[in-house]
């Protein structure tokens, strides 16, 4: 291994160490409360060293979301790659997202709780971490669009639906169901005797029926 290659490898290791430390800090304290000083202390680096690798707390947060997106994409590709039925594929994506939210809750919450800012879309402001993060998010969204388009072409999904709008509504509805049942799980069980896991599956079925050709919600 040459000197330059070794230095690049060391740089990448140090960069990942900082992200690891930031995860511990952000997940325990919350992103808004946590500071770069907290990250530096956890990583056992100086604050100056942190800024050599990352220009802001937000950039580190994007790197954390990138990690989450990569796990989710891998789970989705493994879970639905052999399913040719578009409705089953869409339902499978929802189930995989739920599995991800349970198994990797901190990554899930990091992605879902992030509030897009105007600077995220400002022209001329380059940030590779932000750009990669949005590209990964769009990859998941595009997979949903492809499944919807395929379903319309096959006659399984209503032709009157706009693909982009439907994808946004489905995504928003699923996240809304997750958030409600996550925060109100105990209330729902104690007052209404309903299991949140079963309700989520029921929710998927209702959403699928609302878009399928011949579904009840027309």
Automatic annotation (TrEMBL):
Sequence ranges assigned to domain HTH tetR-type in this UniProt record: 12-72
Pfam families in alphabetical order: TetR_N
Keywords annotated in UniProt: DNA-binding, Membrane, Transcription, Transcription regulation, Transmembrane, Transmembrane helix
Transmembrane portions of the chain: 163-182
GO BP, sorted A to Z: negative regulation of DNA-templated transcription
PANTHER family reported in the protein's UniProt record: HTH-TYPE TRANSCRIPTIONAL REPRESSOR SCO4008 (PTHR30328:SF54), TRANSCRIPTIONAL REPRESSOR (PTHR30328)
Protein's name in the database: AcrR family transcriptional regulator
Organism per entry: Clostridium sporogenes
